[in-house]
Amino acid sequence: MQRLRRLLKPNPETLHHLLVNYKWLWSIINSVTFLSDSLMTFVYLLRSNAVDSPPLYTSAHEYITLEASYNLSYYARGLPAVPTDCPTPMGIKGKRVLPDPKIVVERLFKRTVFKPEPMHSSLLLAYFAQHFIHQFFKTDHQKGPGFQWGGHGVDVSHVYGKNKHVENLLRSFQDGKLKTQVLNNEEYPPYQADVPGVPMTWMGQVADNNKFALGHQFFGMMPGLFLYATIWMREHNRVCDELRRVHPEWDDERLFQTGKLIIQGETIKIVIEDYVQHLSNYHFLVTFKPELLHTEVFQYQNRIAAEFDHMYRWHPLMPDEFNISGVVYPIMEFIFKSDLVVKYGTKVFTDSLSRQIAGQMTARNHGFLTQSVALDTIENGRKLRFQPYNNYRKNLDFPHTKFSELTDDPEVAATLEELYGDIDGVEFYAGLLSEKRRENNMFGALVIEMGGPFSVKGLMSTPICSPRYWKPSTFGGDVGFNIVKTASLEKLFCKNIPGDECPLISFVVPPENIPSSEKCENCKNDEL
Amino acid sequence: MQRLRRLLKPNPETLHHLLVNYKWLWSIINSVTFLSDSLMTFVYLLRSNAVDSPPLYTSAHEYITLEASYNLSYYARGLPAVPTDCPTPMGIKGKRVLPDPKIVVERLFKRTVFKPEPMHSSLLLAYFAQHFIHQFFKTDHQKGPGFQWGGHGVDVSHVYGKNKHVENLLRSFQDGKLKTQVLNNEEYPPYQADVPGVPMTWMGQVADNNKFALGHQFFGMMPGLFLYATIWMREHNRVCDELRRVHPEWDDERLFQTGKLIIQGETIKIVIEDYVQHLSNYHFLVTFKPELLHTEVFQYQNRIAAEFDHMYRWHPLMPDEFNISGVVYPIMEFIFKSDLVVKYGTKVFTDSLSRQIAGQMTARNHGFLTQSVALDTIENGRKLRFQPYNNYRKNLDFPHTKFSELTDDPEVAATLEELYGDIDGVEFYAGLLSEKRRENNMFGALVIEMGGPFSVKGLMSTPICSPRYWKPSTFGGDVGFNIVKTASLEKLFCKNIPGDECPLISFVVPPENIPSSEKCENCKNDEL
Question: What is the top-level taxon of the source organism (chains A, B) (predicted)?
């Protein structure tokens, strides 16, 4: 059976080509439930079977140990580390001494000119990604780059805090709701000063009116993160009101706990049907249907891999300046300025993020503020003894044989060859960032082919997707279950932004907001 | 499909009757691999499907929450707690005020006369149980009876210590081995004084030569536990020697980690094929074959339930005195006397434990030393708002309708009725202990029907059983894999006890060692 599946497993590039072309074919498949459900089940399993569950490796051992399963303080590993007694840092190929990480950043990562995201993805998308992934990418820097302190999955800890203590601080203990305050006639999270004990990370001087108490300690760093934190907080409280309407006898605790279950469900629904749909750019409509896996061999557990963390460092998406309602803020006047959201209001802020194009996830597109993160990524990839970029492709049966295959930019190809000598000697993150863009897609192929499995596995393996959770009563009955099953990005914002009219809520910047210099061929909006 | 399975699900009593009778039939089934494998797969699934995985409930909420899945500090719950607003402590039935726990202990649990285990189980069995289960029953008394501090499963933490720090203290860092010392020409764990920092629990005055550093902090309490700790330590070191023979190039770390994987495998093999086989007393040979589950819908994760912990409080198995090679030690001269094992040697000690009969797990058979534990169990069962005993039977489709069904001892039945009033008002542990013995079995039916699922689920869901672990290379190649696949209780002791001849190593006391007063009808030895 497994051999048969292996035989039927299509080549990644063929499958991708199929999925981003032949729109007429997909519109048929999408409209026939039997076909689309079968294909969706296939996608769930194809992706999640590529992930070891339970995990086999950590960064501490290049062979199987019980620690990999039991010691949650480790990140898992997609591929085991290069053994320490290998002839080169990449194993057997490549240079004996890797290039100075600073040189790698300087020559491969540093933004020379802002490269817009060719599918015209908006900043609303970029911040969605950042807000979502920080709930599970939590490196424990004190222990080292192979360690983490999170819950290894989509546990909504970015909304409710990293543990029960913080959760309790954020709760109002009234009607299940989270604490809020009203500023400029809108509901926002409380100031940190009003909720002592909620850990938040600040850098440099940050004014008290920019210091909010949020579910994740980094979310004060970017107004876009603060916007999402605000919207999800409002959504939780809105859901509690809905639950209270149908269950007037419920106490605060039950409203809170059930609201949290609904928020996890909504998160996954939106991530799959809005966010993953956008990232994949498939004509096939990807759907969130946990029931499709209930009769399949599938593990409802998840572990975050170190490679997934590195792969998801999409800092090139950040522009150097932000246009909020016509006012341009250089990034240094934007970070740690949550009060900009309060000043403009969530409606205008959402609209502005929907109308500004993000940067392309590619070589030479790291803005000056994030180059230090790229440096750190290279250095940590070496400490973690990541296998070379091409081994991750080999593992998925589509290796490169030469630099000109990796990138279609001859200058980047030449730089890679100069820095690494051999196509099998290229570092993981350097390869990922340099990869040529895939047909009709935001990313190179490996981001999709590695990220897909880790994402699908993480999303579908949450407890709520398991057979005994996935039923109306878990979510407070049909009312709650329907909130989950009909959630969308648009509803999430629309229902939580005051006023009669919704702003533009879009992961794609509309054509009228794209400067002619940033227009591109083969973009989402130009497609058939 | 699920409905079909439900229909095919046999009545627990019918199935049990089949399994403990018709020896001729079973000898045929056992000898035909196809039949026995199919039936074993059925048993694995029947048992493990009875356990919620991921778990749905903790003692903190009687409805589904994300905490049940994510907050590992809770024990899970088999059935949710009785809601606090119910009319009686047991829900709707039974008395409004439960009897004083001291009265329950006095009238239902207190040993009047030692009742021998009717299947003639030995003390070697009793200590096997105690040694094995303490790795996962770890109540966090500071937080309360609903909380625990363990790893929720068969993680061999009782051999290697509760965390990496203790594990490191116990390791010699030479050839993968654990630290040892030689006493009376045998290898034993080191004294606690020689390994500062290993946490051990002592009560009263304990001499330094009784204070050993062991994997579990309670294992200094009983010489039988110390015997098992010693044997498993020797086995780990023996396995490391075997591994080093085939992998002379391996370093200490790899030998240790791989040895630990083998020890986990051996543990499960012995628990299923020796221990569970004995407890079940089935004529069907139960087997440890993880590969049978690799194509089935099965979750490789486990959570210890509070009811499983209470159900496994088998203190009646402890006698009041211990006969070691003809010398009789009252229990107060036996506890915290690990040096008795050293004095007599592991061979004589093992032999003696194999020849002494354990107590019966039944009403009025708690020795004076363990009555306080029974009291604690009743009190905590109330704090945890356990549903009544009969609800657990209802949940398995075989409820009792009257007290005379629960027990065949009219006096116990009358006491239960007096204390609880209603068959649906009997407390969980009181019911479990009072239950009549099942046909050809050590226990009442509910212990088997509840314990079976929790046990099978816990054993088969360990990471080593999962498809990507269960292969020779995980265990250092065929040599290690074969050690796991051929492990037995007899080998475990025989290979680790010095001398040419093995002692008696048996979970059943041989007929010649059973005092005539303790002979019983329908015992294992008397069977056809």
Answer: Eukaryota
Residue A326, exposed/middle/buried by CB under 10 A (0-12, 13-18, 19+)?
exposed
Contact indicator for A525, A508 with CB cutoff of 8 Å? yes
Instruction: Determine the distance in angstroms separating the CA of B296 from the nearest CA of chain A, rounded to an integer.
Output: 6
**Any alpha helices (H) in A164-205, and if so which ranges?**
164-170
Give the predicted TM-score (pTM) of the model.
0.95
Q: How far apart are CA B396 and CA B78, in angstroms?
A: 11
Specify the pLDDT at position B7: 58
If you search the block for the tokens 């048992």, which residue do you land on?
B47
Residue B527 domain-assigned (yes or no): no
| Residue A305 lies in domain | 1-476+491-513
Q: How many whole angstroms separate alpha carbon B134 and alpha carbon B115?
A: 25
Residue B334 lies in a domain: yes
The one-character DSSP state at A179 is P
Q: Which member of B63, B71, B299 has the closest CB to residue A300?
A: B299
Q: Identify which of A63, A65, A463 has the shortest CB distance to residue B54.
A: A463
Report the CATH number that the domain containing residue B378 is assigned in CATH.
Answer: 1.10.640.10
The pLDDT score that the predictor gives to residue B8 is 60
Inspect the interface and report whether the beta carbons of B64 and A473 lie closer than 8 Å: yes
Tell me the three-class secondary structure of B298-352, residue by residue: CCCCCCCEHHHHHHCCCHHHCCCEEEECCEEEEHHHCCCCCHHHHHHHHHHHHHH
On whether the CB atoms of residues B461 and B267 are closer than 8 A, the answer is no
| Residue among A63, A85, A298 with most chain B CBs within 10 A, to mutate | A63
> Chain A contacts of B166, Cβ < 8 Å?
none
CB spacing of A301 vs B297 below 8 angstroms: no
Q: Is residue A421 part of a domain?
A: yes
d(CA A399, CA A117): 26
Q: Which of B68, B297, B469 has the CB atom closest to A297's CB atom?
A: B297
A152: alpha, beta or left, given left = phi > 0 and alpha = psi -120 to 50? left
pLDDT the model gives residue B12: 85
A134 catalytic per annotation: yes
Phi, psi of B134 (to 5 degrees): -70, -15
Residues of B within 8 A of A168 (CB-CB) are none
- Measured over all CA atoms, what is the biggest interatomic distance in chain B, rounded to whole angstroms? 70
Number of domains in chain A: 1
Residues in A closer than 8 angstroms to B261, CB to CB, are 64-66
pLDDT class for A36, splitting at 50, 70, 90? very high
> What are phi and psi for residue A418, nearest 5 degrees?
-65, -45
pLDDT digits (tens, 9 = 90+) for A135-187: 999 999 999 999 999 999 999 999 999 999 999 999 999 999 999 999 999 99
Q: Is residue B522 part of a domain?
A: no
- For residues B433 and B426, what is the distance between their CA atoms, to the nearest angstrom? 11
CB B261 within 8 A of CB B182: no
Please indicate if the annotation marks B315 as binding a ligand: yes
d(CA A8, CA A11): 9
Contact B100, B382 (CB under 8 A): no
Question: Cβ separation of A300 and B301 shorter than 8 Å?
Answer: yes
Residues in B lying within 8 Å of A, measured between beta carbons: 1, 52-54, 56, 61, 63-71, 151, 155-156, 164, 253-254, 257-258, 260-261, 264, 294-301, 463-464, 466, 468-469, 473-474
- If we measure between CA atoms, which residue out of B344, B322, B353 comes closest to residue B129? B353
Q: Which of A52, A450, A305, A396 lies closest to B468 in space, CA to CA? A: A52
In chain A, residues with a C-beta closer than 8 Å to the C-beta of B66 are 155-156, 257, 260-261, 264, 463-464
Inter-residue contact A29 to A39 (CB < 8 Å): yes
Written as six digits, the tokens of B47 are 């048992």
Instruction: Confirm if A93 and A472 have CB atoms less than 8 A apart.
Output: no
Containing A291, the helix (H) or strand (E) segment is none
